[in-house]
Specification:
Arc Repressor Mutant, subunit A; 2 domains; 3-stranded antiparallel beta sheet; 9 helices; 43% helix
C-alpha cells in the first residue's frame, strides 16, 4: 500500500497545483480499492483535500496567507465530467465571464451536462450541474462550445468590435481554427460572428493569445 500511495502522490506532484482528481485517474496503478485507500490516506495526511465523494484537490496555496485557494470552476467541472463520463459545458453567464466578456461573476455558477443534475460545495463555492438533453449542448471542441454559450448569453445585438477582439485575443491559433470549423453546426447569426472573430485583423497586428488556453485544456 505504501508503494501505491507513493506512486499516486508522485503522479500528482508531476503536475501543477490546482488540479482536481478522481480515482479513475489512477486506475493503471492498482485496483480501485487500493487507489481509494491511497487517496484517503493522502487526504488525511494533508497532501490532498477531499472535496466530495471521489473528488480530491491538490490545492494551490495563497503564499501571503498560507491557506488553500478554492479550485478553478472549469477544473472542478471537468473532473466531475471524467468521473461520471458526461459532458460539462458552462452556462452562458459563466462562459462570458471566463472569456472576459462580462465582469459579473454568477453567484451560483452553473454548468450544463448530459449527466445527472447535482451540486458540489467547496467552502463558500457551490457548483451547480444541470441536466439537459444532449442535443442542447453545443457540438464541437470544448473551447468552441464555451464561445458559443457566451455569444448566446450576450445576444446578437450586444456583440460589437470589442467583443470580437476580446474573443480573438483569448484563443490560441489552434482554437481559432477549431472555432471556424465548429461554426457549421451552430445558429446562423453566431456563424457570422465567428467569421469576424476568426478573420485576420485589418491592421495585421499580431494579437496576444493564450489567456484562455489553460482554462479549456
Amino acid at each position: 500500500m505504501a508503494t501505491i500511495q507513493q506512486n499516486v502522490l508522485d503522479r500528482i506532484r508531476m503536475g501543477s497545483r490546482g488540479r482536481v482528481f478522481t480515482p479513475k485517474d489512477f486506475v493503471d496503478l492498482s485496483g480501485r480499492a487500493a487507489i481509494d485507500q491511497a487517496l484517503s490516506r493522502l487526504s488525511r495526511g494533508g497532501h490532498l483535500q477531499r472535496l466530495g465523494r471521489g473528488l480530491y484537490y491538490y490545492p494551490k496555496i495563497n503564499r501571503r496567507l498560507g491557506i488553500p485557494i478554492l479550485p478553478d470552476l472549469d477544473e472542478l467541472a471537468n473532473t466531475v465530467g471524467r468521473q461520471t463520463g458526461s459532458r460539462m459545458i458552462p452556462s452562458g453567464a459563466v462562459a462570458a465571464n471566463r472569456l472576459g466578456l462580462s465582469t459579473q461573476v454568477p453567484a451560483k455558477p452553473m454548468y450544463l451536462t448530459d449527466g445527472r443534475s447535482r451540486r458540489v460545495r467547496v467552502g463558500s463555492l457551490e457548483l451547480q450541474m444541470k441536466h439537459v438533453p444532449p442535443k442542447e449542448l453545443p457540438t464541437g471542441s470544448r473551447t468552441s462550445a464555451i464561445v458559443f454559450q457566451a455569444l448566446r448569453h450576450l445576444g446578437k445585438d450586444a456583440v460589437d468590435d470589442r467583443v470580437i477582439l476580446a474573443v480573438r485575443r483569448a484563443l490560441s491559433p489552434k482554437q481559432l481554427r477549431e472555432l471556424a470549423a465548429d461554426a457549421q453546426y451552430i445558429t446562423d447569426w453566431i456563424t457570422g460572428i465567428v467569421r469576424r472573430i476568426t478573420s485576420k485583423s485589418k491592421s495585421g497586428t499580431e494579437v496576444a493569445r493564450g489567456r484562455f488556453r489553460q482554462a479549456t485544456s
